[in-house]
Design goal:
Blueprint: H1 21-32, E1 37-44, E2 47-54, H2 75-89, H3 114-117
Length: 118
């Protein structure tokens, strides 16, 4: 059993046996490229890992929280479009097919295509 303990002084989530220098280097490089701050949480076959780099606020000195929430707003549109286009590439969705074929429960106009919504 692994117990995750939040270290408020370092603003990290240390996890036993989870030294991930390649991830730490990646978030530091993102900050060095001009981003204010980065928080990263990974759950994969190696387990869980969380850390941050940079600062939480412009002009501040506090690191971004690793236990915080991020509101991504309109970015979800990009994620959704990417997923839809992946399904198109797999042949599971037709770009010019009526959306009503995939979402019949919404009673959408049959003239509205997947392409139109992207």
């Amino acid at each position: 059993m692994t117990i995750n303990l939040f270290d408020q002084d370092k603003n990290t989530l240390p996890i036993a046996g989870q030294d991930r220098p390649e991830l730490r280097k990646a978030i530091e490089e993102i900050v060095e490229s001009g981003f204010l701050g980065v928080s990263l949480r990974v759950h994969d076959e190696r387990g869980a890992w969380a850390d941050s780099a940079g600062v939480a606020e412009l002009g501040g000195t506090e690191a971004p929280p690793v236990n915080g929430h991020a509101r991504i707003g309109s970015n979800t549109k990009t994620f959704t479009a990417t997923l839809v286009l992946q399904l198109v590439a797999e042949g599971k969705i037709g770009l010019d097919a009526p959306v009503a074929e995939y979402l019949p429960e919404f009673g959408l106009d049959g003239r509205i295509t997947v392409r139109m919504l992207l």
